[in-house]
Amino acid sequence: MQNKKFQKKKSKTSSPEELIEGILKGDKIALSKAITLCESSRNQDRAQANQILKACLPHSGKAIRIGISGVPGVGKSTFIESFGRYLIDKQQKKVAVLAVDPSSEKSKGSILGDKTRMEQLSRAEKAYIRPTATGGALGGVAHSSRESIILCEAAGFDVILIETVGVGQSETEVRQMCDFFLLLMLAGAGDELQGIKRGIMEMADGLVINKADGDNVDAAKRAKRSYQNALHLFPPNANQWSPQVESCSALEHKNMDGIWTMISDHQKLLEENGYWQEQRKDQDRKWFARSLRSLIEMRLFADKSNEKLYKEMEAEVVSGKLAAFEAAEKLLPSLLKSL
Amino acid sequence: MQNKKFQKKKSKTSSPEELIEGILKGDKIALSKAITLCESSRNQDRAQANQILKACLPHSGKAIRIGISGVPGVGKSTFIESFGRYLIDKQQKKVAVLAVDPSSEKSKGSILGDKTRMEQLSRAEKAYIRPTATGGALGGVAHSSRESIILCEAAGFDVILIETVGVGQSETEVRQMCDFFLLLMLAGAGDELQGIKRGIMEMADGLVINKADGDNVDAAKRAKRSYQNALHLFPPNANQWSPQVESCSALEHKNMDGIWTMISDHQKLLEENGYWQEQRKDQDRKWFARSLRSLIEMRLFADKSNEKLYKEMEAEVVSGKLAAFEAAEKLLPSLLKSL
Is the ipTM, as predicted for this complex, more than 0.95? Predict the structure, then answer.
């Protein structure tokens, strides 16, 4: 009995109105509950999530959204802990940390120890850490992360750190929701970097060589030069920003100010030349297009037999029996029947 | 009267059966007519195109498909002319050249002089040059190019060179339909390369520094080293192929064999480790998914008022009045009415 009572208390639901009020006051519990609604695939939760998002949207958009990527072992958690504390202590910021992990769509669980990884940051009053997002049904992890950003901003967080675990499409998706994309790297040539996927380096607005401490300081300096040379061969961004290379030691809290200066310089340039708003608008357009696409595909494939038909037709294309367009034309009428 | 008669003769239509027979015999006129059908957006043409494609599919797939990209001025036409002649004269190949230019979707015309650009190649019996594809309505240029590849292969061409004009999304689309992606570059650091879009270099299976002739030979050597170093910093491809750098002079027909060796080495490796077929299957799956998506969007937006509704809803998202998902949910019922 007591156990049941406890559970009931724990899962106490709040009305959308209560959650909106809580979020706008900066209440982290209300924020967490609202994010959970956004991640849910139940229709009822979705309706509430829409209501909350609509109320929060006018209060969003003022934060800087920083995507952080890098291979496992590069020290992402330590970096976010160190950088987050710097932002709170030295820059008087409120910092929210979101993690994007497409692989969690399968397990529906958060990475073990997501909160405990960032022990000091998670205890800070001005920090909010949301364990890895689960996908829900509505367009996956990227979708709910995008909505979480809005809610965090409405709750008054002015720096949003979006961590990717570097699996699957997560970097591309995170690039599409952040203002600045930071790639953490390790000193040393080639071999250590094999875990980074192709094309990621060219997405970055800044490279940061972490673990520039102890015996590693010289190697970090060499790596910095080497990447600066490599970046020089890349074509410039349309937004006129030249990606920078910094080194740091998250462990020893070194050069966090250099990284913040780089990010602030980027923001200043883009606000001046108009690309800041341009990038946000462009992201919004793509977000909308993707949402519509996910919604259509969700409706079409809600019927499991449609998925089976799709796979059968795909096999015809792969085996060279049908050209793709004819296969699509054959498949579509069956799919549409279910709408 | 005479004029009319002449026109009638010129535009003589052939039945799908005649075109299929012609293509399989290697008749370039039949091939051209069939490609035109694939590019058409008329339902009747589309039905004939499907019939021809279906008959040609079993005879396709044996060629090597090489994507060629590079900024304007890098000498793409001269390179293709030189490389194409090498393939015909020294490797006894039959060579088809297709060009992909998304910008032509608007003008519905081919780039002026597309054929005359490659004067010698276009006169060769064993070459077929198709001027820039126009988009038609069915999923754009990438779609009809994909179908043109099938038809060229059925007509017996065993090397397909797919040229991108380097505008918009064309490189990404061409990457998705070729076995080997070759990026032409110019000697000299940084500045000259500004026209290359970010992310393109990492797509390449091979970089070729063109115009390594005259006073430019030393600069080309330096550029080669420099790009080799840069590529070393990139993560390796999953297919185990390490992108190579070659230099050449298309003007003086120098090192065409080096380039062909590079491409052949790539094919050999990928055929051995299974990635050759894997890449083709993966491309087919994506091609099918894209075809279905285009078809759905085509049906949805065939009604112009739907496009207007879409733009209105998009504006709501960009201005921050609606979150993307709610906007999509609001829009979808209206779109579906037209189906």
Answer: no
Amino acid identity, residue B297?
A: E
Residue B232 in contact with partner chain A when CB distance is under 8 A: yes
DSSP letters of A11-26?
T----HHHHHHHHHTT
Percent of chain A with pLDDT over 90: 55
Query: Taking the C-alpha atoms of B297, B300, B302 and B306 in order, what is their torsion angle to the nearest 10 degrees?
Result: -120
Q: DSSP labels for B54-104?
A: HHHGGG-S-SEEEEEE--TTS-HHHHHHHHHHHHHHHH---EEEEEE-TTH
- Whether A1 has a pLDDT exceeding 50, the answer reads no
What the block records as the tokens of A8 is 């009931």
Beta carbons of B152 and B27 less than 8 angstroms apart: no
Q: Tokens 């020893």 sit at which residue?
A: A252
- The reply to whether B298 touches chain A by the CB within 8 Å rule is no
Cross-chain residue pair B233–A230, CB shorter than 8 Å? yes
Burial of B111 (0-12, 13-18, 19+ CB in 10 A): middle
A238 neighbors A212 (Cβ within 8 angstroms): no
Domain boundaries, chain A: 60-273, 288-337
The whole model's pTM is what? Answer: 0.76
Beta strand A206-210 with B206-210 is: unpaired
- Cβ pair A292:B331 closer than 8 A: yes
Q: Are A185 and A210 in contact (CB under 8 A)?
A: yes
Token pair, residue A203, equals 């997405």
- The nearest CA of chain B is from the CA of A189 a distance in Å of 7
Instruction: Match domain A60-273 to its CATH number in 3.40.50.920, 2.10.70.10, 3.40.440.10, 3.40.50.300.
Output: 3.40.50.300
Reported residue count of chain A is 339
- pLDDT at B259 exceeding the cut of 90: yes
Which of B133, B103, B162 is CA-nearest to residue B40? B133
Q: Does A54 touch chain B (CB under 8 A)?
A: yes
Comparing CB atoms, the residue among A318, A321, A328 nearest residue B291 is A328
Strand partners, B246: B208
Instruction: Collect contacts of A30-37 with beta carbons under 8 A, ≥24 apart.
Output: A30/A155, A31/A128, A31/A151, A31/A152, A31/A155, A32/A130, A34/A151, A35/A130, A35/A133, A35/A144, A35/A147, A35/A148, A35/A151
Instruction: Domain B58-275: give its CATH code.
Output: 3.40.50.300
**Which helix (H) or strand (E) is A191 found in, with range?**
none
Query: How far, in Å, CA of A83 to CA of B117, rounded?
Result: 56
Tell me what percent of the residues of chain A surpass a pLDDT of 70: 84
Residue window 87-116, chain B: list those with CB within 8 Å of chain A: none
What's residue A132's pLDDT? Answer: 65
Average pLDDT estimate for A211-228: 89
